């Protein structure tokens, strides 16, 4: 917070140039309003390490995973959502750190994949939920990843369902624009293995990415950073040629240290990637999925549910075996 006035003044002076290069609904830069990224004190990795100090895996998990800044995911499990997001960004604000949040509650979530099925009960329920999500953040600095997989998960959907989903995302961006002016929102764009760059650029545009700060890649996936960066640049070329603008993008590097073996659901022999930081070929490299949290009842996470922390998986991911 101590840098806020200076950052706001600088952002306002730079606004015309920023809009010419990459239109955005937000003028302020939350990375300059804070002194680094927030470490979630209640992440599943942090809680497991604290609860199991005598476990031989705990020191490595605590040092390599639990103390790395990463996102907190918010959904139906979060209780009163405005209170939940407000409490989280408030805690980060008090220590002058930038929090990473994931909004993961869209109606018909993971409709085609199914492992993380759920979400709001209706489009109107989602509109109310996301409005409260944004309102809880208010004018404090934050980074939000908006609805992972939502633009990639089209394979079994009708055009009416696609239109409905894109409308929900557009409405969500409007809420952040109105209520959370110091939040950078990244609309999720899947990963390079899901849809070609031209298709994803069209989906992003139709869902309103012009009003977002940017887009996100590789959330909860394993694809190497270089491949994601090439894909993000290709998406931007399509956005530029088709619609006349480009957007910054971020990459989830939490589990891509060994790249992908072609499997997305709890594959073996993966490794943690570059810790959260600015730059790295994208605007930011971020830990969005917590290493060790299951993708679902599959692969080396057989018998688990999506989001469940698996210490043995986390431990092996530190060393890549």
From TrEMBL:
<keyword id="KW-0624">Polysaccharide degradation</keyword>
<feature type="active site" description="Proton donor">
    <location>
        <position position="149"/>
    </location>
</feature>
<keyword id="KW-0119">Carbohydrate metabolism</keyword>
<dbReference type="InterPro" id="IPR001524">
    <property type="entry name" value="Glyco_hydro_6_CS"/>
</dbReference>
<feature type="signal peptide">
    <location>
        <begin position="1"/>
        <end position="27"/>
    </location>
</feature>
<comment type="similarity">
    <text>Belongs to the glycosyl hydrolase family 6.</text>
</comment>
<dbReference type="Pfam" id="PF01341">
    <property type="entry name" value="Glyco_hydro_6"/>
</dbReference>
<keyword id="KW-1015">Disulfide bond</keyword>
<keyword id="KW-0732">Signal</keyword>
<dbReference type="InterPro" id="IPR016288">
    <property type="entry name" value="Beta_cellobiohydrolase"/>
</dbReference>
<keyword id="KW-0136">Cellulose degradation</keyword>
<dbReference type="GO" id="GO:0016787">
    <property type="term" value="F:hydrolase activity"/>
</dbReference>
<dbReference type="InterPro" id="IPR036434">
    <property type="entry name" value="Beta_cellobiohydrolase_sf"/>
</dbReference>
<protein>
    <recommendedName>
        <fullName>Glucanase</fullName>
        <ecNumber>3.2.1.-</ecNumber>
    </recommendedName>
</protein>
<keyword id="KW-0378">Hydrolase</keyword>
<keyword id="KW-0326">Glycosidase</keyword>
